[in-house]
Every structure is written in structure tokens, then in C-alpha cells.
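testing teh design pipeline on a random one, pls ignore if ur not involved
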């Protein structure tokens, strides 16, 4: 019996030894085979046989998927790509595979970025950069390129002599002697056939001046009303009223183009039953019957489409001429005061002036960027136009200049990721030329 147990132990030991030997020999064989594959692939790279080298590297990666070996294969791809750009798609696929294993490899990230840029695939280029940063890549070049790409842009080829700020995702624009309409991407919606055109209302109604007279037209083309005079300036149709300039004064007309009330020096668009108007040097809010509904102000800031209110915030100046923040009924909402202020846009960071410099304050009256600019416009969709040395550029909410100072003027960004900028022709005086700046990645 003792002999049997001894024999069993010896047999188990023998089997274990054989097993380990087989394992070591097998893996050693694979290791040697892998080393052989890498060596052969390296040799083929030296001989310029990049396709064969890539295939051999792939075989080696099955056994030894190290960052070093992936780098060797990517280098072979790079040299093959220099010979034949048709492999671009395969090259991008393998770089993505490499980054899935080694997400912090700066060389892989940089090369993938460059290949997407060659294809003008800005979104994929930015995505690979953003992913790398999220994974902990801190390379300064990567960070800089990501920032530059995020705010990269094109200027539309069309040039306009004038425009009305975007409303309902469209711009009324002047080109030559006529007015037309383009969307936020610069696509022509209405040809430049009209001597005058207002901004469009939220329901699609606008005022045109045509050879048949000035008329109010709805979104379907139905003529709602015809004016008895030629209109050269107006606001936006809202709540069945539109302010129209006639003989030097603004009057409000209904959808039948019939005068309701007026005699104002300036007149805004109705919002929630109220509009801002100026008369005899004073500003007030009026209702849709023309009755005053607020205290008098020295100034109420309205945007180029006549709006006085963004959300529940109004910017105005009282008797002392200092600008403050008020609610929709004209009641002060904080103690902040400034020498001048811009209109409150959707972001709620409002440009203000103090002692000759412009900065930014939020709707709670807290200064978020100290005054430092010659001029400035309020933030809209994360960006704001600022002026330095007579040129306009754009900053983000961190105060970083993301689009350099280069324009003669600038408007506000819209939800479509574009903005009107002034690009006057050199040497041409007293002529405004505007182009649509379009972010490659949108917002």
C-alpha cells in the first residue's frame, strides 16, 4: 500500500514537471516567434516593404500587444501613408485601436488629429483631442490645438452692407441696393430683391417694401396689410403691433397696417404686453394700448430688434444716469451700478462700462470679469465680442481670447454657431462690410 502511494506522488510530480515544461516551452516558443515577427517586420520597414511589415506587426501584436510594438506598426503606417493616401481609413482605424489600449500616448493622439484635419473632419479631430484630455493627457501642444480647433471658423464668401440681428434663426441682410434673408449658416432664403425688409417675427411675419408698396406679409406669403407710405425703417411685428418710422417719428401699426398710436422718438418690440419707448428725452414702458406702465427712465437699453427684456432682466438708467438691473416691471433687482451697459443676452453675463473700461457682470450684480476692454458686447452662447486697439475679437467665459482681435466690428453669436463681423475693405472710408463668421464645430 505504501508503495502505491509513493508511486502516485512520483507520478503527480512528473505530470506537474511535464506541464510546466510544456507551458514554459510553449510560451517561450511564442515569445521567440513574436521576437522573430518583430525582427522581420523591422527589416521590411528598412527595405521599404511597409505593407508586408504592417501585416507582420499585426501578427506580433497577437502575442505581445505592447505600446512599443504598436508604435512600430504606426510608424510603418505613417511611411506607407506617405506613399499611398488611400489607406487613410485603415490608418485611422488602427490609430483608434492603439488609443483604446494606450489612451495617453501623445504621438497617437497627435497623428489621429492630423489625419482627421486632412479630411476636414473637424468634429472627429476635436473629439480625439477632447477624449485624450479627459483621459489625463496634459501635453501643451495638444491642449493648445484643442482650444484652437474648438473656436476655428470660416468666413462666408458673401459680403453685406448691412444687416438686422438674427431673429427666428434668420438675418435680414442688405446686399447692393436690395435686402434679402439668410439663415444662421449663410444660406440664402429670400433673394435680395427688396428696397427694405424688417427682421422676421417669431411667427414668420415681416414687413417688406416692394414695387407695389410697403406691406406686412405672414409666413405663408399672405399680405396682411398695405401701408399708405413707403417704409424705410421699422421694428419687429409682435402682439399684433409693429413700430414703423414715419415723418421722423415711430408709430405702432396693427396687422392691417392701420396706425394705432405713436409719436415716439424710439420704439421697441412688444414683449409680454409691454414695449420700451422714448419720447421727449425720457423712456417708459407702455402697454398695447399705448398707456404708460412704468416709471420714467433716462435710458432703457434695447437690442437691434427692439427687445428690452431678456428673461426677466431689463437694463436701464434712472435720473442720475447710472445704469442698473431691473425686473420686467422696472423694479431694481440689485445694487450694482455702471456708467454704461449693454443689452442682457441669453447667457446673463452683461457688458458694462466703468471709468472708461468695459467688463462683465451677471444678473445678480456680481462682477465676473473686471473692466479692461475698450468696448465690449454681452456674452451670447459662451462667447463675447471685445475691442482692443480699435479691433474686435472674441473671448470665452474664462476671459481667454479665442478669436483674435482683427475685425472692425462684431455682433453677437447665435444658436447656430455664427456671428456677423465687420470686415471693411482696406482704404475704403465710411463703408461697412459685414460677413458671417461660422464656427467649424458650432457651439
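output:
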Amino acid at each position: 500500500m505504501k508503495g502505491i502511494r509513493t508511486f502516485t506522488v512520483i507520478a503527480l510530480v512528473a505530470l506537474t514537471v511535464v506541464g510546466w515544461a510544456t507551458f514554459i516551452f510553449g510560451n517561450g516558443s511564442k515569445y521567440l516567434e513574436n521576437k522573430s515577427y518583430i525582427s522581420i517586420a523591422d527589416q521590411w520597414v528598412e527595405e521599404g516593404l511597409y505593407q508586408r511589415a504592417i501585416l507582420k506587426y499585426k501578427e506580433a501584436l497577437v502575442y505581445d500587444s505592447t505600446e512599443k510594438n504598436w508604435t512600430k506598426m504606426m510608424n510603418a503606417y505613417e511611411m506607407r501613408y506617405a506613399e499611398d493616401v488611400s489607406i487613410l481609413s485603415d490608418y485611422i482605424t488602427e490609430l483608434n485601436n492603439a488609443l483604446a489600449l494606450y489612451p495617453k500616448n501623445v504621438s497617437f493622439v497627435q497623428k489621429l488629429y492630423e489625419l482627421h484635419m486632412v479630411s476636414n473632419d473637424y468634429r472627429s479631430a476635436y473629439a480625439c483631442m477632447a477624449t485624450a484630455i479627459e483621459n489625463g493627457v496634459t501635453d501643451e501642444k495638444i491642449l493648445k490645438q484643442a482650444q484652437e480647433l474648438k473656436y476655428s471658423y470660416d468666413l462666408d464668401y458673401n459680403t453685406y452692407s448691412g444687416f438686422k440681428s438674427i431673429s427666428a434663426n434668420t438675418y435680414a441682410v442688405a446686399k447692393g441696393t436690395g435686402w434679402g434673408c439668410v439663415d444662421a449658416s449663410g444660406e440664402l432664403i429670400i433673394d435680395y430683391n427688396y428696397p427694405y425688409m424688417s427682421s422676421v417675427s417669431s411667427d414668420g411675419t415681416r414687413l417688406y417694401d416692394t414695387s407695389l408698396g410697403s406691406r406686412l406679409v405672414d409666413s405663408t406669403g399672405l399680405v396682411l396689410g398695405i401701408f399708405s407710405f413707403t417704409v424705410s425703417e421699422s421694428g419687429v411685428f409682435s402682439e399684433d403691433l409693429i413700430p414703423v418710422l414715419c415723418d421722423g417719428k415711430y408709430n405702432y401699426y396693427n396687422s392691417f397696417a392701420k396706425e394705432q398710436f405713436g409719436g415716439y422718438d424710439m420704439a421697441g418690440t412688444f414683449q409680454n404686453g409691454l414695449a420700451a419707448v422714448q419720447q421727449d428725452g425720457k423712456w417708459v414702458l407702455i402697454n398695447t394700448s399705448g398707456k404708460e406702465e412704468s416709471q420714467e427712465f433716462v435710458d432703457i437699453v434695447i437690442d437691434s430688434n427692439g427687445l428690452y427684456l431678456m428673461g426677466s432682466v431689463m437694463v436701464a438708467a434712472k435720473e442720475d444716469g447710472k445704469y442698473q438691473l431691473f425686473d420686467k416691471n422696472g423694479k431694481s433687482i440689485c445694487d450694482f451700478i455702471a456708467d454704461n451697459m449693454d443689452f442682457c443676452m441669453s447667457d446673463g453675463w452683461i457688458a458694462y462700462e466703468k471709468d472708461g473700461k468695459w467688463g462683465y457682470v451677471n444678473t445678480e450684480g456680481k462682477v465676473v470679469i473686471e473692466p479692461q476692454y475698450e468696448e465690449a458686447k454681452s456674452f451670447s452662447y459662451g462667447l463675447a465680442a471685445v475691442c482692443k486697439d480699435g479691433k474686435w475679437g472674441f473671448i470665452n467665459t474664462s476671459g481667454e481670447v479665442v478669436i483674435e482681435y482683427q475685425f472692425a466690428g462684431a455682433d453677437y453669436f447665435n444658436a447656430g454657431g455664427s456671428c456677423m463681423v465687420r470686415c471693411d475693405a482696406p482704404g475704403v472710408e465710411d463703408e461697412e462690410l459685414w460677413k458671417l463668421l461660422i464656427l467649424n464645430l458650432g457651439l
